[in-house]
């Protein structure tokens, strides 16, 4: 693509993206296609000769767009509702153009140092102490994997050379994210090494049960490796009693990892500082700006006070990556399994500056206000019931038709059907979970463009279609 | 950022990127700043109130750009020289705007299905058999990690539940990439589980030594887990005798993983089909379109004929991610540790269509021609010597001043100094490695904008500064 052709097409794409973001509500939220539709619409082989960008872009609009589920839609209330933002998107455009690999300081000093700067900004915004050092990974799954690898290095110092010998336990609650399960499997600890502690009626880890489990395991010959506490669990956004969990960890000398991937950023909002207060003594903590801080996917942050352990676990410099800086520099490849790294700090930097601390706080507050508003409607209705507290921006609830009484099986089926009907409208997209065995609908607010009107529309559809 | 502000800024960035790509040679290739310069130039805290995009972009140009090492510069000859391309960059812009999460089919059917389509295109281009199924990860480090995790699942079927018990070996050559080292550490196998087989005078794995090592290890109680053969090693781009390695693997029933991250794409060039011929019988193979296929970083492809094993190792569906499609769909979260996934297939699709098979082949051929041209100059010179064959687009060589004779220590120091002098010019950026103990300069061609003139300039500087 010659420079002038690139310029022309870049302006075309800029206009397309501007139009898209101005009105993403014109699309159905959830893609309304059938499995295989896109595969069938495309040729089975790459073209022999190059095609015009006109032809490619036409297919993008004709074939790809109908297969997009619109995470930008203000009616997207599923999973954790995420949004990018203008400055974040433009930063990604710049980052793709620069195409730097931040494996070594010298391969892109700006990427390395801007990561340091922005992670210090974010750390201060959420009131974490200064001895937490940060590093950016792609996803919380990978951040947590590295945290547990550092914990493993700590408990089993020969594990790097000799491999796993012995039986180790990782503790979390029965509400903890599945990435913990995948991490213990990958690390070779085995899924049985993960002991899930029962949660209480508000889906928070029972600390006495944790302490008892550790004692029982030690007596049975297991070595505790780490405890994972969550601030904002995936199902109900419950908050584990992190400070009390931390006391157990301190007493037992066990690594405390805090999964605050979704909710941790809320600690910057006045009145919410306490949610990470217990995490101040943790060994590691994960926050995902790509979840609820208007940063396009992917950008997950791991803070740890033991960056040295991550380096002991992973640093390794082959001949072809030796460098000769006279002063010490941070080579980001030393703290992870991924050698190549995108320039992700750029988008976080542009987002933090564009919104400013006040702008971020205002938007997070508004999302929480919308969730409380919706929860109030649920609470005031005889036809619905709430299934969990609403500490942040997610509401768990279900429809309870009088006719079904307390027939839990029928209630599950009814709510599953209701969810499907609501999502088929294309106006909103909600997801589900199970809480205490019950099928629960889940409304997650997180999109920059979601207003009271969109939440009201969801409520209206739920009432009309139940 | 309101829609019209976004439109205005998107056009500004589009012009900036077009200008940048049209003349990235105006910058020094290697950033000429000192460690800490960028940290010092930026405030220690995020701003309280939002700032204008004007102010942010001004700082991007003033503070960030001088700290960029220009991977787009036609004089970038270090590591593996990578380049994005216009269609790839625009696809990333679109992907950041859409911001879809391809964890489940329903969360973005287009991302899931376009991945299937483009990976079939790529597989056919490099002549791999149809029973290879593909999946996109971020980096080759992560692709290889998953390949070895699948191999581990295969050899130790209880490892998912029970964890690692016993002693396993992974084999590679002494030229294999450091990501294999990191993978065995992460997987809990321990670094000692990696047995590096000596390579021959052309840096290819010695197959009899591999067979002997496996026999010796079995006798000593180790269980062979996998062999990693490389097509295009990182130091010299040597090609392991994959077919012969494969015969050993077949006889010993050991998983064969082929690391073709850099060079595998060259199999599409007429005359180079043979480089992956031996890989046709492999269990898994990694190719990185972000290395030498004009796709912006990151996009690595793992092909395997055992996708079922990857699923056995990692699939796990919590309540909040259950779906209800009636026909079977591919949920990409089932084949990896990363739950969240960017829409990476879009850029590969646009790149493959923009260039077409012929366009890709022509550019890869030209890069290899430029490398051979440079190697010819080295061979014809009395002042330089080549240190390895040039099967692809990388030349390993050194300066051999007559005065230093065969004083290897002095030669190493001389070449290290020469490299530093050449890189300080800012006109080109070369890197180094060690081959047979000798400090070797390395010239890697891979940038779309590199022409004979840039290779000649590197040669001129090397001669002037030696």
Label the structural class of chain A. Answer: alpha/beta
Which range best describes the helical content of chain A: under 10%, 10-25%, 25-40%, 40-55%, 55-70% or over 70%? Answer: 40-55%
CATH class of the largest domain in chain A: Alpha Beta
Mean pLDDT of chain A: 96
Can you tell me the residue ranges of chain A where pLDDT is under 50 for at least 5 consecutive residues?
A: none
Total number of strands of chain A: 12
Q: What number of domains of chain A?
A: 2
CATH homologous superfamily caption of the largest domain in chain A: Type I PLP-dependent aspartate aminotransferase-like (Major domain)
What spatial order of strands do you see in the largest sheet of chain A? Answer: 2-8-7-6-5-3-4
Largest interface pair? A-B, 160 and 160 residues
Beta-strand percent range of chain A: 5-15%
| Oligomeric category | homodimer
Distance between the termini of chain A: 53 Å
How many separate helices of chain A? Answer: 15
The largest β sheet of chain A comes out as: 7 strands, mixed
CATH-defined topology of the largest domain in chain A = Aspartate Aminotransferase, domain 2
Q: Characterize the overall form of chain A.
A: globular
Please state the CA-atom Rg of chain A, rounded to the nearest Å. 24 Å
Level-2 CATH architecture of the largest domain in chain A:
3-Layer(aba) Sandwich
SSE topology string of chain A = HHHEHHEHHEHEHEHEEHEHHEEHEEH
């Amino acid at each position: 693509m010659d420079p002038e052709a690139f310029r022309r097409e870049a302006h075309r794409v800029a206009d397309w993206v501007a139009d898209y973001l101005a009105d993403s509500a014109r699309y159905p939220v959830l893609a309304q296609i059938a499995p295989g539709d896109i595969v069938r619409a495309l040729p089975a082989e790459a073209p022999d000769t190059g095609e015009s960008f006109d032809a490619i872009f036409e297919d993008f609009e004709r074939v790809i767009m109908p297969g997009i589920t619109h995470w930008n839609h203000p009616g997207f209330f599923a999973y954790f509702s995420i949004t990018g933002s203008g400055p974040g998107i433009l930063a990604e455009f710049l980052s793709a153009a620069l195409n730097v690999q931040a494996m070594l300081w010298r391969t892109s000093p700006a990427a390395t140092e801007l990561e340091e700067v922005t992670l210090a900004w974010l750390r201060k915004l959420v009131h974490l102490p200064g001895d937490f050092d940060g590093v950016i990974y792609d996803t919380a799954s990978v951040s947590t994997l590295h945290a547990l690898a550092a914990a493993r290095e700590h408990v089993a110092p020969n594990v790097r050379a000799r491999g796993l010998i012995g039986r180790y336990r990782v503790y979390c609650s029965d509400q903890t994210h599945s990435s913990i399960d995948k991490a213990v499997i990958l690390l070779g600890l085995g899924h049985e090494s993960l002991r899930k502690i029962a949660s209480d009626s508000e889906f928070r880890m029972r600390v006495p049960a944790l302490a008892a489990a550790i004692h029982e395991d030690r007596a049975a010959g297991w070595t505790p490796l780490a405890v994972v506490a969550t601030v904002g669990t995936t199902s109900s956004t419950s908050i584990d009693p992190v400070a009390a969990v931390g006391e157990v960890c301190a007493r037992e000398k066990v690594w405390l990892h805090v999964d605050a991937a979704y909710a941790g950023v809320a600690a910057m909002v006045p009145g919410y500082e306490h949610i990470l207060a217990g995490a101040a003594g943790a060994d590691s903590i994960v926050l995902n700006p790509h979840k609820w801080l208007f940063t396009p996917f992917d950008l997950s942050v791991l803070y740890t006070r033991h960056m040295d352990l991550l380096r002991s676990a992973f640093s390794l410099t082959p001949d072809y990556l030796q460098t000769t800086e006279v002063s010490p520099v941070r080579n980001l490849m030393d703290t992870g399994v991924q050698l190549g790294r995108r320039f992700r700090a750029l988008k976080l930097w542009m987002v933090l500056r564009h919104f400013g601390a006040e702008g971020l706080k205002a938007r997070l507050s508004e999302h929480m206000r919308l969730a409380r508003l919706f929860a109030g409607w649920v609470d005031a209705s005889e036809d619905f019931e709430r299934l969990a507290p609403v500490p942040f921006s997610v509401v768990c609830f279900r429809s309870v038709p009088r006719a079904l009484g307390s027939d839990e099986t029928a209630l599950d089926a009814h709510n599953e059907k209701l969810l499907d009907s609501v999502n088929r409208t294309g106006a909103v997209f909600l997801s589900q979970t199970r809480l205490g065995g019950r099928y629960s609908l889940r409304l997650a607010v997180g999109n920059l463009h979601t207003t009271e009107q969109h939440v009201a529309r969801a409520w209206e559809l739920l009432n009309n279609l139940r």
